[in-house]
Every structure is written in structure tokens, then in C-alpha cells.
Write a structure and sequence with these properties.
Length: 233
């Protein structure tokens, strides 16, 4: 049975909309909750696939948060071995750093529904073809990263990387492709003051969520199905 490692950095940000095709594929799921254990589970280097989810820490804060270095090193090894990898938000930033990119604070904060411009390369990419189904995407992050050498840009927004591929078995998606209405509404309630402090409009986020969630759900499903196919070879 193929084994999938899910790296979860927050109790409320797990696979969400990505989970269905993964369940159908019958993976043996191993979850590393970094907020509960700073070290990856035994055998994490021998899994067939890794999905690293979002988080509220900075992917470059290795000095202050020891598990960040452990995750980066795990992803470095996975890249060397050709393990299938999908990084989402914080996971995309950490994957980029594992491949030699640099993480840093963004000049602007992306919160709420925004538009992504996809490249021609995305049309010929298994994950990219799924992503282009929704140019309106849900964002919630303060950091960004430089594109590693050799990476293929799949999408960007005003000069900030939103999606990329490394080799033919690893992808990073800056935005929350996994987000469903429950997650988004929960974040509005949990982080309301933070949203207002950053000039994000919670009412508009709710309106946009009602407008886009069905299309977005299909994109997440298609992304997950494409990743499963790569992971299973």
C-alpha cells in the first residue's frame, strides 16, 4: 500500500477539499502535526508522497522554530529521492527553500479572494491544468519566496509566485487550494481583528466565497486526483 505523509502545521488547516481523491486511492496516511511534535514520524523519509499544508509561522524562521529546519531537510531528501510532493501555502514556501529558494516577508499581504495569472506552462502541466479552472483563489499569507533555480512558474499575481513545479514530481501552490466554506468562515471568525487590521473586508470575503466555492471545490478535487496519479506512478 502506498504511503502518504501529511505535514499539518495548524490544527484547523488539514487536507480539507484535497482529501476525497486521496481517500479513494487508499493511501496509508501518516500525519506529522508539527504543533505537537517537532520531529517527523519514524519512516517519513520512505513514504511515496508528501503533502505539506499551511501554517501561521514564517518558513524561514529556522532559528526560532526548530521543526521548520526538520521539515526543510525532510523535503530536501524527498526531492533527491523523487518523492511526489505537494506544498500548499507554508508548504509551498518550505518546498521552495528546500530547493534553494529564499523565503521572506512580502511587500504586501494577500488576504481574501484574488486573481492569479497562469502561464502557458501550466496548460501542459498535470497540476497546472487543474489549477487554471479557477483564476479566483483564496489567499491568507504574509510571506513569499523566490522561485528556485530550475523551477517552472505556473502562476503569479502582481509579480508574486503563486504556483510552480520542481522536476516532474513536486509542486508548490501559494494559495489555499484546499479551502472550503467552513474553513474560510472559521478563519473569518478566528482572525476577524487581524483581517480588519490588514484592510481585508470580511463581508466581501463571505460574498466571494458564496460565488466561487463550487468551482473551487472542483479545482481542489482535480488537483488532488492529478497528484494521486503522479504519486502512484
Amino acid at each position: 500500500m502506498a504511503k502518504l505523509l501529511v505535514i499539518q502545521h495548524l490544527v484547523h488547516d488539514h487536507l480539507h477539499q484535497l482529501a476525497g481523491p486521496i481517500a479513494d486511492a487508499g493511501f496509508d496516511i501518516v500525519t506529522w502535526c508539527t504543533f505537537a511534535d517537532p520531529e517527523p514520524p519514524a519512516g517519513s523519509e520512505d513514504v511515496d508522497a508528501i503533502i505539506s499544508m499551511g501554517g501561521d509561522d514564517s518558513a524561514y524562521d529556522e532559528a526560532g522554530i526548530p521543526w521548520i529546519r526538520a521539515e526543510r531537510e525532510l523535503l530536501e531528501l524527498a526531492l533527491e529521492r523523487g518523492t511526489a510532493i505537494l506544498g500548499v501555502c507554508f508548504g509551498a514556501q518550505t518546498l521552495a527553500r528546500a530547493a534553494g529558494g529564499r523565503g521572506f516577508r512580502a511587500e504586501r499581504r494577500e488576504i481574501g479572494w484574488t486573481k492569479v495569472e497562469f502561464t502557458e506552462a501550466a496548460m501542459d502541466d498535470p497540476i497546472g491544468r487543474a489549477l487554471v479552472g479557477s483564476p479566483d483563489v483564496f489567499q491568507f499569507h504574509y510571506d513569499t519566496f523566490s522561485l528556485p533555480d530550475g523551477a517552472v512558474l505556473l502562476g503569479e499575481a502582481d509579480g508574486m509566485v503563486q504556483a510552480y513545479r520542481l522536476g516532474d514530481r513536486a509542486w508548490g501552490i501559494q494559495y489555499h487550494v484546499e479551502a472550503d466554506p467552513g474553513l474560510i468562515y472559521g478563519w473569518i471568525g478566528t482572525y476577524l481583528d487581524e483581517l480588519l487590521d490588514n484592510d481585508a473586508d470580511p463581508v466581501q470575503i463571505e460574498v466571494d466565497t458564496r460565488r466561487y466555492w463550487r468551482q473551487y471545490r472542483q479545482v481542489a478535487w482535480d488537483v488532488s486526483e492529478a497528484f494521486v496519479k503522479v504519486a502512484l506512478g
